Structures are given as C-alpha cells and as structure tokens.
C-alpha cells in the first residue's frame, strides 16, 4: 500500500459538492424566512 501524502489528493469534486450544499442551505433558509414573514403579515 502506498504511503499517504498530505495535499496530493484531487478534491475538486468534493469542493463542488460542498459549494452546492451551501448554496442549497442558504437559499432554503431564505425561502423559509420569506414564507414565515408572509404568514405573519397575512395573519393565518
């Protein structure tokens, strides 16, 4: 088995996946906040 060398692995796929996850979480929180504000203004 080869020895592990720090920083030698290609992590571009993981970086893209994590960036997509953060984008989804950010916009999901914004959407939920907008829905809650709408519901508070409409007084349902």
H and E order: H
* DSSP summary, beta strand count: 0
Please state the CA-atom Rg, rounded to the nearest Å: 20 Å
* Structural category: mainly alpha
Strand content: under 5%
The main sheet comes to:
none
So what's the overall shape? rod-shaped
Q: What can you see in these coordinates?
A:
By secondary structure, this protein is an all-alpha fold. 70% of the residues lie in helices and 0% in strands. It is built from 1 helix and no strands. It has one helix at residues 12-42.
Condensed summary:
The protein is mainly α. It has one helix at about 10-40.
State the main characteristics.
44 residues, mainly alpha, 1 helix
Write the layout of secondary structure elements.
Blueprint (H helix, E strand, L loop, with lengths): L11 H31 L2
């Amino acid at each position: 088995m080869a020895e592990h060398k720090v920083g030698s692995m290609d992590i571009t796929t993981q970086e893209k996946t994590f960036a997509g996850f953060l984008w989804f979480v950010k916009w999901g929180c914004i959407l939920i906040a907008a829905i809650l504000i709408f519901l508070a203004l409409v007084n349902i």
